[in-house]
Design goal:
CATH topology of the largest domain: TIM Barrel
CATH architecture of the largest domain: Alpha-Beta Barrel
Structural class: alpha/beta
Strand content: 25-35%
Number of domains: 4
Number of helices: 13
Shape: globular
Oligomer: single chain
Length: 608
């Protein structure tokens, strides 16, 4: 049977354990250093503890070490990888190909989406050089994913939920160009979330102070069957910097979606053990989001931008109809004290308030100064839902069948879990002649069936003994605890591990020339590409001199400002207002936009 994996983010041990409790088959977490989210690095002790917790459920822990590396860091990285292997991780997510030139432990390597995995040829190459899994570019359509799946046998992973980088991952140099903070080094300043003016070559302002490069969040929760058909086996939730509410809510959402698919797909099964139950109904609209998009999974069919704000709007809940000195009246969904509400002011800026008091359709906010009649209200903090998530602890249990037997003078307890692990435990306590055998039997069954705060739940109890005995409750409890401890150890012993030593190959790279967008920043990476037939190699953007930045492409994106403004000549018909060369600018920089309509991409160039 083919395994499907739900992969959730973890910024630390606590969030990683929560992701597993709410249904993740695997979690990904940042290495202590050299992660593409530098602020989400995690120490080795937490990573080792997370691996121990995850492996009980046969869940996996993948570590992101996916920045490009400078020459001085190569020795440190090689030592760190050995330590991560010793901590028990299950795979390493990397961007820098120099790592393949190191002495590596037998640890599976996953090609980060930062390696720009957007074509059949690129994925085929990465498979041939030893990668166990390829994390595909977010911009791919189902048709493109299907073609990759048909022409490769490597595992394919796809982002299905969360924030989107507007640029093709690994192909954005905007932050590095303007402030020396590289996305490829894990320190992106996110200039894509800033506000810009859109102007033409005469300086005419077409759009004023809009978040022209800011995208909505991706939500493919309804595309699971189509993604499976296309060849995806791992479904990835973005968010190593997100809070606990997001982890619980979104992981539970996708657990339900994948389980619903598995119920109708006998050829597939989940990639880990245990059943999850939730005491809330997952709702993706009630945790941080900028509005949702399917992005390009079905081609260019929707607008992906969030031009009005880069912040979380939440869900539209109503409209203000009257404002008084301290209160306002609105029409819409019920609100509760403590809810966070936002709205766009008459000048277009986003503002917000907390609900202090709610009586029917009359609201007392903590700040009424900017509220006006006609304002559309959005709830971006639902206190009642947040409190439900806080109270929820997750409930993930592994099915166990229990059999009580009698063999000559021995009382035997057998446990078999849902993965076929089994143990036999022999009772070593004292027994007494029972005054009432039926009462004694009921006591034995009752005590042995109490799994309580363990990772197991009783699926069935088979009583295959003739025991005219009374066994003290304390000894029965000890008997059960010892059996459960033995089963836990057996599970760890049989935890599936994939060990693979990567051997160097000479498989040719798809091209013989790589420019700065190959992100080659050290001698090991250069050696790797030379061995694979690349003859001309440019250095990474991050190590070039500033004088070389003028007129360089700093962003390549499928997001199209013209399409967003109904001026795409390919799909919507050209609007004459956009015939001239276009630029975006803020208070400090101007960028030229180049629309490559034949490739359906937009490039952003920095102007000096």
């Amino acid at each position: 049977m083919k395994k499907l994996e739900l992969l959730a983010p973890a910024k630390d041990l606590e969030h990683g354990k929560a992701a597993i409790n709410y249904g993740a088959d695997a979690v990904y977490i940042g290495a202590p250093k050299f992660s593409a989210r530098q602020a989400a690095g995690t120490d080795l002790i937490q990573i080792e503890s997370l691996a121990t917790y995850a492996h009980l459920y046969y869940a996996k822990v993948y570590v992101a070490l996916n920045t490009i590396l400078f020459e001085s860091e190569l020795g440190e990285v090689q030592q760190l990888i050995q330590k991560l292997y010793a901590a028990g991780i299950d795979a390493l997510i990397i961007q820098d190909m120099g790592i393949l030139e190191m002495e590596l432990p037998p640890l599976p390597l996953f090609a980060s989406t930062q390696t720009h995995n957007a074509s059949v040829e690129k994925v085929q190459f990465l498979e041939k050089v030893g990668f166990k899994r390829i994390i595909l570019a977010r911009e791919l359509s189902l048709e493109q994913i299907t073609q990759i799946g048909l022409n490769t046998s490597v595992e394919l992973e796809s982002f299905v939920h969360g924030a989107l980088c507007v640029s093709y991952s690994g192909q954005c140099y905007m932050s590095q160009a303007i402030c020396g903070r590289s996305g490829n080094r894990g320190t992106c300043a996110q200039p894509c979330r800033s506000a810009y003016d859109l102007v033409d070559d005469s300086g005419k302002v077409i759009q004023k102070n809009k978040h022209l490069l800011s995208l909505k969040d991706i939500n493919l929760s309804n595309e699971i069957p189509n993604l499976v058909k296309a060849g995806i086996s791992s479904f990835k939730i973005e968010g190593r910097l997100k809070d606990m509410a997001y982890i619980k809510n979104i992981t539970a959402l996708y657990r339900n979606k994948i389980d619903s698919f598995l119920e109708k797909a006998p050829d597939y099964k989940k990639a880990s053990s245990g059943k999850c139950s939730f005491d809330f109904i997952p709702d993706p609209n009630k945790t941080f989001n900028r509005g949702y998009t399917n992005y390009f999974i079905n081609g260019r069919k929707e607008k992906t931008g969030s031009f009005l704000t880069q912040k979380s709007l939440g869900t539209e809940v109503g409209k203000v109809v009257k404002v008084t000195v301290r209160e306002f009246i609105y029409e819409g969904d019920p609100l509760n004290p403590g809810d966070g509400i936002c709205f766009f002011k008459e000048n277009g800026e986003l503002a917000g308030f907390l609900v202090n008091k709610a009586t029917s359709n009359t609201i007392t906010p903590n700040n009424i100064t900017e509220i006006f009649s006609g304002a559309v209200l959005y709830r971006n903090f639902d206190l009642e839902f947040e409190n439900k998530l806080k109270r929820s602890n997750g409930n993930r249990k592994i099915d166990v069948s229990m059999t009580l037997k009698q063999e000559l003078e021995d009382i035997i307890l057998e446990l078999v879990d849902e993965d076929g692990n089994n143990i036999r435990s022999v009772f070593k306590g004292d027994v007494l002649k029972a005054d009432n055998e039926e009462t004694a039997r009921q006591s034995i069954v009752s005590q042995l069936s109490k799994f309580g705060n363990t990772p197991f739940q009783l699926k069935e109890f088979l009583y295959q003994a003739d025991l005219p005995y009374f066994i003290p409750l304390g000894q029965l409890n000890q008997f059960r605890r010892e059996a459960i401890d033995s089963l836990i150890q057996k599970r760890y012993l049989h935890n599936p591990k994939f060990l693979e030593k990567i051997e160097p190959t000479t498989s040719p790279y798809p091209t013989t020339s790589i420019d700065f967008r190959g992100n080659i920043s050290n001698s090991f990476a250069k050696k790797f590409y030379q061995r694979h037939g690349v003859e001309h190699i440019e250095s990474a953007f991050e190590i070039e001199k500033e004088s070389n930045l003028s007129n360089r492409v700093v962003m390549t994106t499928k997001h199209c400002i013209k399409y967003q403004l109904d001026a795409c000549p390919k799909f919507q018909g050209m609007n004459s207002a956009y015939n001239k060369p276009l630029f975006i600018r803020d208070q400090h920089h101007t960028y030229e936009l180049e629309f490559k309509c034949s490739e359906c991409i937009m490039e952003v160039r920095i102007c000096k």
